[in-house]
């Protein structure tokens, strides 16, 4: 489940793996999908891998989902789309 408040705070549950975490792009795998989150000054306020929870702060500009099979392709697309 994803909950976004005023594009400044995001809560995510169902987290399985953090692929990368940079101030402008966060990539994770959830129980169902690969998720790329584009923004500015993104920061993990809370990360609990045991519970599968992530809380981000910063300016959230967009998200791109893909199935786990297409994660490499989705990551490349996300980087091009969210330049």
Q: Helix segment count?
A: 1
Please report the first level of CATH classification, the CATH class: Mainly Beta
Q: Return residue spans where pLDDT drops below 50 for at least 5 consecutive residues.
A: none
Question: Helical content, roughly?
Answer: 10-25%
Main structural class: mainly beta
Largest sheet at a glance?
A: 6 strands, antiparallel
Cα end-to-end separation:
26 Å
Give me the side-by-side strand order of the main sheet.
1-2-6-5-4-3
Strand content: over 45%
CATH topology: Immunoglobulin-like
The quaternary state of the protein chains shown equals single chain
Mean of residue pLDDT values: 87
Describe the structure.
This protein has about 80 residues and is mainly β. The protein starts with a strand and ends with a helix. It has a single domain (about 1-80), classed as Immunoglobulin-like. Strand 1 and strand 2 form a beta hairpin. Strands 1-2-6-5-4-3 form a 6-stranded antiparallel sheet. The chain has 1 helix and 6 strands; from the N terminus they run ββββββα. This is Sporulation protein YabP.
